[in-house]
Amino acid sequence: MRERDIVYSAGVTSMTSRPLVAAVALAACLLAAPARADEQSDFEKGRAAYATKNYDDADRRFSAMLDPKNGTLHDPALVADARMYWAATMIALGKKSEAAAIIEKLLLARPEYEPDPLRFPQDTINFFIDTRARIIDRINEAKAVAARAAQEAHDREVREKALAAKRLALLESMASQEIEIERHSRLFAMIPFGVGQFQNGQPVLGWIFLGTEGALALAAGITIPVYRSQLSSAAQAHTLGQTVEEDGWISRANTTRTVNLVLVGAFVVTAVAGVIQAQLTFVPEITVERKRAIPAVTKLVPTLAPIATPESRVVGGVLGFEGRF
Fold it and tell me: Which of 134, 168, 195 is the last residue of a domain?
């Protein structure tokens, strides 16, 4: 059993050994059918010996094929029928105690078994019925054990499927996410207009500094042409000798210049405050998760794996497909 497991694991983890595993599995599939045919052949020989009343030969054959260590029968249905024929052989030989033990083993393994009344004498059928009635409590207990085992197997399968579904969902989630690390620059954080805040992942502060500094810069820029226009009007009034008008335009120009200086100063203070805040809260790097599409399966590759009994006997194989992207 261990050797079989090792070969199969190698086939899963190693790309170079897959052809070998596939060949082994294919050979197992080809050998399984002859093995089942041999079992059927052995059983038919024992049944023929019983039918021809060659009970000693039938006893020898059924004893050999049902031997717990070296028996040749493994199919559950054939094992049950063989035990019934062996019990009938023991009854014909007058060994009813041995026949009862065989029937007990048969019923405890297959509680639902019913012998074919057309193949066995009525006294054999009656003996079977009496033996079943005698051990009915043990049969019911065996049924309960089998039912519990079946329920536990079902529950385990459900849990395994749920775990497999969760694992698949987790793998799909991991495969659909691309994680990147963005490294930041302190020089970049020296740029005003909220650039440093946006880089640090502080969009609210970034928009506040961007809006405030943008509005101050725009207002300061607007005052410049207004100031020049006012100076031009003052020069025209001076040329025309309009002293009063000239003084008014000069006063308004001085006011506009003062407003411009205040706006420029406010812009400088806000920009410096934004740069200082960006430097104090500087984030060297951040992790960014991006969604990406999971590639569809573009190729299916057939795979084969052998199936063996607990006695390390190969009885078949499993054919499957492996997806490639």
Answer: 134
The single residue listed with the structure tokens 């003084």 is: 247
Q: In which element (H, E) is residue 68 found?
A: none
Is the same domain home to 126 and 26? yes
Which range marks the domain in which residue 45 is found? Answer: 20-134
Helices (H), 182-202: 195-199
| Tokens matching residue 118 | 């057309």
Q: Does residue 7 form part of some domain?
A: no
The 10 Å Cβ neighbour count of residue 253 is 19
Q: How far apart are CA 214 and CA 203, in angstroms?
A: 16
Distance between CA atoms of residues 189 and 212, nearest Å:
17
Per-residue pLDDT tens for 110-165? 999 999 999 999 999 999 999 999 999 999 998 898 889 999 999 999 999 999 99
Q: Is the dihedral of CA 7, 10, 11, 16 positive or negative?
A: negative
Global model pTM greater than 0.85: no
In this structure, the answer to whether residues 48 and 120 fall within a common structural domain is yes
**Per-state percent for the chain, helix, strand, coil, to nearest 5:** 70, 10, 20
Comparing CA positions, the residue from 75, 21, 81, 28 lying closest to residue 50 is 81
- For residue 206, is it within any domain? yes
Q: Is residue 263 part of a domain?
A: yes
Phi, psi dihedrals of residue 315, rounded to the nearest 5°: -120, -5
Number of domains observed in the structure of the chain = 2
First to last CA, the chain: 33
Residue 225 lies in a domain: yes
Alpha carbons within 13 angstroms on the beta-carbon side of residue 289 total: 5
